[in-house]
Amino acid sequence: MSAPETSATAATAVPTPPVRLEYRTIHGYRRAFRIAGSGPAILLIHGITDNSSTWDEVIGDLARTHTVIAPDLLGHGLSDKPRADYSVAAFANGMRDLLVVLGISKVTVVGHSLGGGVAMQFCYQFPRFVERAVLVAPGGVSDGVTPFLRMAALPGARTVMRALSLPGVLPALRGTARALSRIDDSAGLPERLAPRHWFVDHPDLLRVVGDLTDSEAQAAFVRTLRSAVDWRGQSITTLDRAHSVENLPLLMIWGDRDPVIPARHAELFGAVVPSAQVEMFPGSGHFPFHDDPERFVGLVEDFIALTDPIEFDPVRWRELMSSGQRIDGFDGDQKLLDQVRLAMEDERNAS
């Protein structure tokens, strides 16, 4: 007897629908987004300095069975870049506004990096819109983050970034990164001098850095970064309100060699939300959906097929808002629980 066919397997028989780039003006600002397919909606939210094209390898396959919407966040990609509020909460508002304009009332929200923090904030601010959530190497768990983003949050960062527009600077960065990525253990360099995981994602990281040659993009990047990161690291956390997603079907995906946000954050989040399904991509960095798009699509499709969408319960929601996070409900050994408590005590200023 053959094994049952998963939704991901069945979807491969359906032709890939075309992906359209569209625009809507909302509150006076032009928002760009990619959209494809039909059926239940999936909202894809990209990370900082990135744009909706980051989902190119997966959006078509997901759109075989769903309506997929992938916006360019305000200040990113082809969306306007005004002098505006670039906080995580403001981005969540923007996602709500776009869905309202498109006439979409329910989504499975998928967020990567900064977009993962936005996805969690969206779940908290607009629970009536959310059926499930997929967090991909999300920001907003604890303070750990690459030193490069910490430095970029310092005063004077924009002066340094202006050098990116000078002739030869980006090609030099690309060449250096390629050379360093070829360093292996046989070179004899100590790991502390050349951490191997730093260069796992160098093509993607240089791609997003390449979008910072424009002064408006630089200003938007700095505003976005400083809303969530300072010299100490990430300055906000979702852990203090993770109880609000206690019954929400939740999938977390991470690359175990992530150079941007440590993969150990998956353990911290799992201790607070034991019901979350965690999937690690061995050898992958900060963009697991680029390293293995087929596996990523399969996980998301099967997660949606095998979980029931949450139904918003206003009475239970009011109880959750009143009770707050309960530390005695965490799951893990003492060392892990101490790390969770430390993260919650140190970053209590979630939006």
Structural class: alpha/beta
Count structural domains: 2
H and E string: HEEEHEHEHEHHHHHEEEHEHHHH
Helix tally equals 14
- The helical percent reads 25-40%
Shape summary: globular
CATH top level class name of the largest domain: Alpha Beta
Number of strands: 10
N/C terminus separation: 52 Å
The largest beta-sheet arranges its strands as 1-2-4-3-5-6-9-10
Q: Could you please say which CATH topology of the largest domain applies here? A: Rossmann fold
Low-confidence stretches: 184-196
The CATH architecture of the largest domain can be given as 3-Layer(aba) Sandwich
Mean pLDDT score: 84
Percentage of β-strand residues: 15-25%
Q: How many strands, which pairing sense, and closed or not: the largest β-sheet?
A: 8 strands, mixed
Rg, Cα atoms, Å: 20 Å
CATH superfamily of the largest domain: Alpha/Beta hydrolase fold, catalytic domain
Outline the secondary-structure elements:
Layout: H1 7-11, E1 20-26, E2 29-36, E3 41-45, H2 56-62, E4 67-71, H3 88-102, E5 107-112, H4 114-125, E6 130-136, H5 147-152, H6 157-161, H7 169-181, H8 202-209, H9 215-226, E7 229-230, E8 233-234, E9 250-255, H10 265-272, E10 277-281, H11 288-291, H12 293-306, H13 314-323, H14 334-346
Parallel strand pairs: 3-4, 3-5, 5-6, 6-9, 9-10
Antiparallel strand pairs: 1-2, 2-4, 7-8
